[in-house]
Amino acid sequence: MEEETEFFIDVVREENLQKLEEITRIVSEKPPTHDPNAIFLRKFLLATFIVTKERKKKKKEEIKGEKPLEKKEIAKKIEKEIKEVKLEVPKPIILQPAVMPKPQFPEYPLVVTKDTNKVLAKASLKDNHYYLDEPKLEQIDFEILTKLKNEIGKKLLRKPNITDDKKYLMSVMKSITDKFNVKLDDDYYEKLKYYLVRDVVGLGKIDAMLKDGNIKEIYCDGVNKTLYLTYNNEKIETDISYNNEKEIDDLIYKFSILTNKKLNSEPFLEVTFNNVTIKAIRGLGIVSSKFTINK
Asked: What does CATH list as the number for 208-295?
């Protein structure tokens, strides 16, 4: 049987070779997967391309009268070229579980003025943290407030309704602010009144939080420890803490005054006030004073 004549220039064959070269280029790139089957396929395609290229080279050498390579030599050459191709296996991508963002609430008012509805205290929740925003106080404001509390504090405890008498409060405040050369306008009056009511008639740092219907419990574990809340059935941290033991003890003492509960030698206190249950323990020695409030 006559052997089919194979021309040196074959258009179809050249096109196939070009396609094979393109396939080889693609598979020579880093594999998109670490699947061993994909790596085997790449090696197989590379070997196929090299064999085809060697056959083409052999035909050229036969036409030119050169001695072609033996099959063993070709096999060694193919093996060498395949080894030189770096088949890097990428590290598997580990997907981290999605972290759902904590709910966040815009600022909402807790304390507003009666006449102008100006917001004095407001709260917000961000990144599972409760923030209480109150009027800012400068050093001179603290000094004026101390004078004000000393002058009418006891009277306010006996008659809390005095806080509704603006004319009376204004006259007392003005007599003090004049000594400090501070102008007493309506905004400053409302700020001083807010802290006067909060600290004398109310429960100090936690007074505004007790007006927040979302809060069910307040936890204080001691001095310089941030307060925790049960907010919509979830325990969250606040930006509030007590700086010394006296602050907590004064609050516990106020609990007893408001509920007519005398503090005796026992360090424990459990009282109910305005549908709020208060459990407290006074510090003894190395043990810090603590309290829990349940609404």
From this structure: 3.30.450.370
